[in-house]
Records
---
Amino acid sequence: MLAAHSGLAGNKRDATVTLGDQLKAPEQGRDAPLKRESPIFSESLLRAFVARLFMARGMGAPSAEAVARVLVWADSRGGETHGVSRTAHYFGMIDKGAMKPQAEPRLRVDFGALAAFDAEGAAGPVAMLKALGEAQTRARAHGIGLALVGGATHAGAMGCYAEAAAREGFAAIVIAAGPPLMAYHGARIPSVSTAPIAIAVPGGPEGVILLDMASSRISNGALKHAKRDGKPLPEGSALDAQGRETSDPAQAEVLLPVGGPKGAGFALMVECLTSLLAGMPILSRMLGEGKKGHGQNATIILIDIARLRPQQDFVADVDMLADIVKRLPRAEGAPELRLPGERGARLASQRQRDGVPVSAKTWAELVELATKYNVAVPETA
């Protein structure tokens, strides 16, 4: 079973160095020089450093470890926009009182296969991992488990939770709603959330097939990074303050949905299946008078495959389907046909071996936070 803060079930990376060992890193590393502009770390070392940062802001070790695991998971797969670059943003939420470092999610609905949590402002990964463990327990007992999370803060990449469940033998669907960042189709103001969704099943060449995407053309994290780095946006991905399409990140204010009305409609329904089911609306409160709301709500659905058929038979069918898809005739000039999540999984395997790079700008932010909160800075690889 997934423990409440276990994070990546079945993850054996850096097994020779535990996170507990790394959390006790010596203080003499605080003034370690930056040996390269974009340093590289083992996953365990990076997780431990980020966990120590959050402990310095008042989180207990289990909660800090949960946040660090989810953020580093994204970096290991090339998802820098949802990785440790989020640390400074999370610190900002703590400063504003939006994220409460010592909060513990409260189980408020306990009914058969259903569970619902009030996160009470806890860090998103803390609430999500607790709900994931609860959904798994209920799926084992009932064949399916559904856990709602309301009142949470940003929870990182939804794929982290779906992948962890798939590696435990579940088919997983994870959806999340948040504040309005994306225009509803035809509107020119932020109207719906980017509504990320992750779907994962065991099988395929990497052990899990994982779809992890937002309903916007680009994620809000990608927009922030484009603004930071001054990189142009893909055409049709954002509007400026006057509601005109723009590829200039400095002018971009509103994200656009993937597939136009399809992405917008999906995002609206995600709000219904998360926030409204949890009794914690986000969009109506933030778009209406007063414009008050909170960070994120989510729904986790797990199916115990073994209750429907032998799991090895299901995996064999997934493998067969994956093989057929990868051998389909390619269109002229098309590269290798990849399955959902295959690129990220390959990169994660490579970075398990070679280390996880951290961009120069993100590293500078982390060092600044470490200096401010008297946290040891690790030596780079």
---
Amino acid sequence: MADALGPLLRRRRLPVLALADLDPAATVAAIGLVGASSFVGELLPSGDEYESAAQALSQYGLPRPGAVMPLEGAGVNGLLTAYVAASSGLPLVDADFMGRALPRLEQLSLAEGLPLTPAAFVSPTGEVLLVAAATAVALEALLRSIVGAWGGWGLLVLHHLTAAAIRPYAIVGATTRAIGLGHALKSLPRGVDGVDLAAAVGGRLIGSGPLDDITRRSRSGRFGGGHALLRDRASGALVRIEFENEFLLVARDGALEAATPDIVLVVDLRARDLIGVDGIRVGMDLAVVALPGPDWWWAEAGRLARVGPAAFGLATVETPRLTVRPAGAGGPGTTAPAAGPAPTTLDQNALPAARPWGTPW
């Protein structure tokens, strides 16, 4: 996707707009990939997916969108939406509905108060599914049931949203934050250590060192998951990362350091690249960095239940929250747990046991 977007952006300018700059009555096309992002490299987009979805949705008499916005601004979803915006000549809205990577449609902030339908789902080989009405949970189940037969991924497009309607649910700054993180990583010198890397991206280093163990597991009725273990090079602490489709939480010697909706970054120190769940391998020299997640998920009671560890079957005493320290308090852009009770510990009975080596879990 990046290979396709680069040449396109060299030919065309892509305006990126703040949501507040849009006319409140303007219609915004919300776009996201459903399926496995790894399949995008095997079954490439045709380039016609968005127009096929727009044509299918036109039967509802909705106006053509004046801008494009990602359902999720992270990873391939962000690139895919930027590609659609650049190829269609529409501006890209600097916001999304997650503020980090999350796997299910019911975990969109949008699902808190607005319907996700009508919606169109288009495969890279041309199949089109038009859904007139469905809850977020039902839409997720429907699309997952067919995406495997459609090549592993498809483009979901919503055309019924106005700028005014989505403002209460938008997590602003998602695109510029992702671009800023990318620039920060790529500007680092080769051989950078975890401390300098964390400072560059405005995060808190949980640990860095070679990855010693990965355990992957399947779970009935859920996405597969697992955990990874590394020894912090500086302290010898055992760092454990729990993951599903995304990295969900990280603990250090049994104390919970960060958890979704805060963001856990895993970075290959040699390549200075972010590594996804599918890309981690034993022996990689990694840094694990925590970044504060979007305020939106903490703004009202009940929101964390949909995106916190418990939503993924990971029971913890509470969900810790990271806060950004002001410059001069631990270094500019560094983070620390928010003030409050003693460090959270994991419910060890709720997590699969690590392999019996080194420090016991």
